Amino acid sequence: MEFSGYFPIWQKLTAAQQSAVSEALIHRTVKKGTVLHNGSMDCTGLFLVKSGQLRAYILSEEGREVTVYRLFDRDLCLFSASCMMRSIQFEVTIQAEKDTELWVIPVEVYRQLMEESAPVANYTNEIMATRFSEVMWRIEQILWKSMDKRVAAFLLEEAVIEGTNQLKITHEAIANHLGTHREVVTRMLRYFQNEGMVRLTRGVVEIADEEKLEELQNG
Which residue ranges form the domains of the chain, and what is each CATH number? Predict the structure, then answer.
């Protein structure tokens, strides 16, 4: 399936607009770990994910990472085109969490679409609202949730994303998602293991008792 099948308001564009987008599109295939966008000064263009998984994160002054949202098939990333929204300044880094295939829509082309097309402007505003909701949810987690609840919530979320309870993820990677230190995550996971909620092997966290993790997360 081509771009037109992934962009939900494609049919609401005029023939001229469709042609302008098609001619400007850049198709990219990137490997896991590739940094696609680095901070507000890097105005890369908008990313539309065809397949794979991207992660958007911010860096603290101490250099710790905090995941603010993730992007999956058919998701559009706006913050990789931060120069398009001058009133919003986010130092967001976008990195491929898996091998990913995507399209890049140049900023000038998309800006022109927003100016000419009400459906595109409305679609963009809806995405913006969704992303801000996700960011605010993350902030609430950081401010008000204890670390054991946050680790439990992350493991359950990751199991849904991966479709398995056998999570091939390092303690360092979990710490980067949650904005904490690896030692804190290791301590929490060992506690979870002692309580029978997870089983730990090298590079793998296996959810052993999903119900207990859910109780901890919601308790």
Answer: 3-143 (2.60.120.10), 145-218 (1.10.10.10)
